[in-house]
Amino acid sequence: MKRRTLLAASLLATPALAAEAWPSRPVRIVVPFPPGGTVDILGRLTANWLQEATGGNFVVENRSGAGGNIGAQAVARATPDGTTLLMGSPGTQAINAHLYPNPGYDGIADFAPISLVAEVPNLLAAHPSLGLRSIPDLIARAKAERLAYGETSIGGSTHLSAELFRLQAGIEGEHITYRGSAPMLGDLLPGRIAWGVDNLPSILPHVRSGALTALGVTSKARWSGAPDIPAIAESLPGYEVTAWFGLLAPRGTPPEVVLAANAALQRMLATPAAVQRLAELGATPIPGTPEAYRAHIDAEYTKWGDVIRRAGIRLQ
Asked: What keywords are assigned to this protein (predicted)?
């Protein structure tokens, strides 16, 4: 069966599990990465918003490992009754299938998408001790000496951001992959690595404090919240990577549960408070239907599969 057919069928498989209004029991939102990163930040915001919108009890559980595969697999195998949800990302839903021989789940067919929540650019930042002020500065320095650099998730958008930058810039370096934002920043902030890529909400506070120097955002254009930070594409035309995050349920979750969760989330994403909070984090809300989220995942799966093959990216 084709992947799109399997995905569409996920909302049609309707076991009699949700006759009562959702949520009638506590709901667990699995964040498949460590605390402190953007997936965790947005997962906790989503839990708070859903709790406020429905009056239900929502808790976040961090289940990290294998580039998000461990947490995603746990949700894919959970009972599809609306009590276990996943905070998904490009890595878990669209990229890992191209990098891991057996992720343990299918990022498309094993889930019923509920809604996208937000998208963020990634940010490339350097340690201030290097004295770099721009992407061309970094490229010139990296061609003169082998610099250590890092990103926050194997196969995630930060990994692809760093590797695409290296490939387009024509540089080499000591590449270190970290399991989450906190470990990477733990080496970047004291200068043990020269530069790194992280989701904007995780790294921006350190730029604003002066602890790191922002060199470029990975979106096609500058981010409106910090228009003084150039887009990497200004120096490397055609460069673009954007991270997105959204809520999913296991395949077979009753459609009424999916629609109830979607409706609650749409109400909250439209509030001025949510829009402002996301803007403070460097994120943009992406309200929409489950069908729109399905189509987005499908397009991202194709896009990143092509990029990974063309770039020859392999797990180390």
From this structure: Signal
